[in-house]
Fold these 4 entries.
Entry 1:
Amino acid sequence: MVSRGQGTKRPNLLFLMADDHAGYVLGADGDRQAATPNLDRLAGEGLRFSRHYCNSPVCTPSRQSLLTGQMPHSAGVTQLRTALSEEKPTLAKQLRAAGYQTAAFGKMHFNQPGRPGLHGFDVCMTEDQMMKRWREAVKEGPLPEGVATQPLPWQPFRTPAAQWLNAEKRPYPRVDAEMRGTFIAEQACEYLEANAGKPFALWVSLHEPHSPFDFPVEDRERFAAETFTAPRVGPEDAWQIPLIFRGLSDEQKRGIMAAYYTSAHFLDRNLGRVLGKLKELGLEEETLVVYTADHGYCLGHHGRFEKHCGYEPALRVPLLVRWPGRVKAGVVTDFTEHVDLGPAVLEMLGAPALPVMHGQALTPYLRGGRPGKPRDHVFLEYQENEEVYIRDARWKFIHGSGKRRRMDGYETDNPAPGRYSRLFDLRRDPGEFRDVSARERQVVERMMARALGRFRESHPDAGGEPGGLGAAEALDYYLRPRDNAPAAEAPARV
């Protein structure tokens, strides 16, 4: 813990976040096609967590779980359209109580208008406020002749998937200086300049590389679609490929991948602008920098171009932490979860702990050590489809009630198939194609017990679990969404 007496001022926090940035699309993770030089530099200067997982593969539950330190079912946000209760404790509230100036710029998925004080942020320039300010401050200039750009407005699920997934790799109809992502980065830079002499906790949350994978016209030739190869899709995948993706051609899939990688490159450039300002102001050594994403993304894996599922590309996310002189550079290969991050941030900055914490704080890693008992598995939930996922060093377990007709737009041939449990041996089958649950019943039982243990120790309705239920029935009890969010409108289903 850092005391008030250390140094001339309290350390700052710069919390950088992306939307849909998969952990494997990162040069530092070994992806030779990824163009992420600023994030790679951050990873080299800090600590990279190579097996870090979100706790839900959908935006709002993941983000609010991270902000509160509670599992989604305890935070009360398990569906996309649910708003976090203002009564919930958050990292920002704890940091403000410790004397920090708190601010959020960009995409936070609060599902209500941003305003000063919301969830502990003194400055709360979230989606609605940022969009308004951007449109007022930045006007569109002329574009080069003959450049095909994205058709607007963006209409996911209302136009063919190839269009809202940007298979033609079209830029947003603006140049770099006029882009919303650039504007958010510039607003963050202005905040850093204005608050350089105060202890601040600043969240900068960009929209990229979420579909339609925005990038400016200058980047339109950055990646060629033909340099990508979509992951194989076998006959074992047919039943679970969402209907919305069934008509995509191989050429379109390659174009989608190229658009995603281009958007990730644009994200990296804007993160570099913010990190560059931090350095210019001489604040690097007194600022804890964190970079992560809400969840990962499938780029053709199992025929899918989204998250909303239990496959590895949708679950593993980047986590980079830098604090020169305090956090030793390196790579952590132990399993870690999003709920582990917030408690460590508060502890490192000397702020009061969250009253409810479901994670195992990452602090020992940040201090150059290792917990006495590192995680031996990770736990995730997707209650829109009433699914739970457990992954350890060898096995991936997926259980679903099969009762709920999902309303996220990704229905399959059989939208309510009945209860199912699947098990993949990741040592022999890293692509998660062959379900071995029938012959590995002991492993299935062990995984069910782990999942039930996590629910029973953290779910607010654990005391009401009916008696006499088998393990599968008990899991079904916990997987039912309790927040009762309204059905999502098409544009918000992504």
Note: Confidence is low (pLDDT under 50) at residues 1-8, 485-493.
Entry 2:
Amino acid sequence: MRLHRFFVEEKIPATGLPATANSSKEEVERWQAGEFSVTNETLLNQWRNVLRMEEGDKAVLFSGDGYESLCEFVSLTGKIAKKSAVLKVLETKRGLVTTREVALYIALIKKDNFELVLEKATELGVSHIIPVQADRSEKKGVNYERAEKILREASEQSGRATVPAISEVIDVEKIPNDVVVFDPRGEISAREFFSKHTTAPVSVFIGPEGGFTDAEIDSFHARNIPIVSTGTQILRAETAAIVALALALVK
């Protein structure tokens, strides 16, 4: 049976030192024994009331550092465990980590489409997501609590052992010169570009609904930012993001 995977904010014993220097004697002893506590109320509710997990059940946990641990529930129900669960690490191994650093600069788009990009970008292996306020962006901000939840859940589902970082929104003028812009007006095909650049870190920039303005394209040209095309078809912003990341990451 396939084990459930969960992201936890707590450090896992086999991958580091205790989270705080003022840990109690009991916490230190538990840590040395390979045990640790999880206090996230959402996770506790999911384990107890949704999945009906019990002491002795096993799950795979990861904290985003590239490792994952097979853990056993030591304490999950009853008076002691009302606000925490105690797990014991049985095995730790290197998890699934993409071999190429890819940052996605994505213009702010409609909420549902933006969330779809977050989910699919995580599944494909993106390292970093940077929302951008472009001239034609309709959306004016990011719900970071919601976004980070989507990133965590997509990491759990896809089997990766890291969670992408998401940055504060920047203006289009602030994008770096080393991005690769995706736009139908590009003079080189995206496939050709990525066939020549296969392993080095790369940043891709996807425009908003309605695409980049002529002024933005002129600005990219003036800064010698490469513009690549996926063909003559006009792709939706969320589709273009998935295509771009697939070209950069899927080998």
Note: The CA atoms of residues 64 and 163 lie 6 Å apart.
Entry 3:
Amino acid sequence: MNPDRTRILVVDDEEIVRESLGGWLEKDGYTLGTAPDGPSALKAMREEKWSILLVDLKMPGMDGLQVLEEARRLSPDTEVVIMTAYATVDTAVQAMKNGAWDYLVKPFDPEELSLLIQKIVARQALVRENTMLRRALRREYGFKELTSRNPAMQGVLDLAKTAARSHSTILILGESGTGKEVLARAVHSESPRAQGPFVAVSCAALAETLLESELFGHEKGSFTGATARRRGKFEAADKGTLFLDEVGDIGPKLQLDLLRALEDRRFFRVGGSEPVTVDARIVAATNRDLKKAVENGDFREDLYYRLNVIPVRLAPLRERREDIPTLVDRFLEQLSLEMEKRLEGLTDEAMEVLKAHDWPGNVRELRNVLERGAVVCTGALIQASDLGLISDTGTPTAAAAVPNGAPASLEHVEREHISSVLAFANGNVSQAARILGIDRATLYAKIRRYGLRRGGEGEEPAA
């Protein structure tokens, strides 16, 4: 039960009742609003989401039963408690038939009110948790949520769905934030191994020595701090799927160890002498150009071909802008549920701003921008100014400048944008990563790759 997330609207034509009830409930930690009559209450419901309505039965113009009826239509999840000084069996039964949670007879004890609200809040929390779990399961597993209006992207998803039914290794290519792990989970859920575990490991988040132990496990005493035998991710993924995220960032030694594990389906724990055999399907992902990395000598050619059995490329969001409205609807549905806030959509201007943005952080960045808009907006519609993508001149912000009038390369655009975000965040990598819609490990890797200072300017000094 979390009072901070519970918003209660008190509807009564008597000011002293509104003030006294508001005072009691605010002391319990709830967020309060008041309305002097039925029309005002319904207006408040159209503008914001309320968890509970306390409604007086007898009010001039529109009585409590009418407010109840309209409230149930506007927001079925909002619970309504009827307050009356004229309690009769008939009115109480009618209110309950119309969908009221309960009724209170005036004057009532504040303790009675508090207990009733606590019961409602506890039930709403349980319903919310169950709903979020069901939606999370629908969202994370299967291809139902992975739809696109872009013909090329539709072909990619069809290929991934077909490949999922095999045991072959899949390599997912795409920029940060395009949804590579979401696709990997969908592949697992459609595969013959769906009943097995799905194990994900970020190859960019750990130093090579730590990543070796993370992948293959270690024996007791194999290094300082190894106080017990530990199973690695490969073992944990036995009979299931191992997702190797940002596989292009692993070092030369680990590339060789990984190649052997993929070829032989067995490996040695760190410090171990007995081989460990596993049966795990490999799905790898990277935002790097592995073919170019092979040509430069940064990535083993034999490992590249071992991983690149079925390559699947996820297009960046700027190449499939027609998907933005669909993604917006999906994310706003999630955010409305998570924040318990009525979100009916975006204004036309706000949608145009989203379509004009270049989205260097892709789908993850879009979700973060919408979350910001959902927090900042004061009504049910998110305005363009709520998104944080409008410059001082009122025009959409550009991802990066175009040098000498010529189109900039993608690397130049990304470097300049990351540099500007780091400067905006005053070198705070966590804040910059949230703005960009990527994780901290990925941002650190890009800072090293482009030689950026954490302040966003110049070259990183040599170590």
Note: Residues 3 and 151 are 47 Å apart (CA to CA).
Entry 4:
Amino acid sequence: MMDRLRVKYRMVLLNDDSFAEKFSFRLNALNVFIAVGGVSIFMIALVTSIIVFTPLREFIPGYAAEIATKRNLIALSLKVDSLSRVANDQDSYVKNLSSVLQGAPEEKPQKSKTDSTKKYKNLNIKNSKEDSVFRAGYESQDKYTLSVNAASKGKNSIAGFFFFSPVKGLVTSSYSAVIEHYGVDIAAVENDPVKATLDGTVIFSGWSSETGYVIQIQHSNNLVSVYKHNSALLKKTGEFVKAGEPIAIVGSTGEKSTGPHLHFELWYNGLAIDPQDYIVF
């Protein structure tokens, strides 16, 4: 069999008029088989590479539909997730508003159960030397602290101030030092502007995991106003703002927010005071 494949043949090209030889070459069946096989393998590899690594595969009947379906499924999944979060926020907002209108008492969050697998008595919760030094240095700065005292101490000194209402809405949670709620929660329309209550300089403009987008303004006479749970901030740290100037957008950011509202605080000489003593929302 191999002998037949190796039998050599001569292919000659002749001029039809003069029978002069123009071209000739030798070949056998084995060479022809190898050449045809090599070309076939190369063409198959080339076509496969084009289909796999180029967008031409989308023109294959049935394949394009599968890709479009995957893209639509991903887009729909993202939309469903967004709609689900919006629906949950709206549901929480309606429940809270309904409770306020009906005069129902505020629901206290359930206390988390202690993990019995841990030996908490053996934990060392004493402040380290480095921690004590850091706390002393930070608390010595000229900023408000979390200490709360009688709010009436600062009333007379700022009684003459004209406070601009940051938003118009319904107060859903008032100031209470007992439960460590150092401001008021005002239910407002989402995406409404939040306005500066007095002239001042922005001393903080950033993000907090618990209170979302927060902006703080230092006013005259050692007074600080704080605005929490915004959806966006319009001013940066160091900027000077005028009373009534938009500084943020009403939102519901942060872990402690259950619906669109503004948490507003006033701090005077490092002490939290009740904003409703000075502002009609």
Note: Helices lie at 2-5, 29-53, 63-102, 129-139, 155-158.
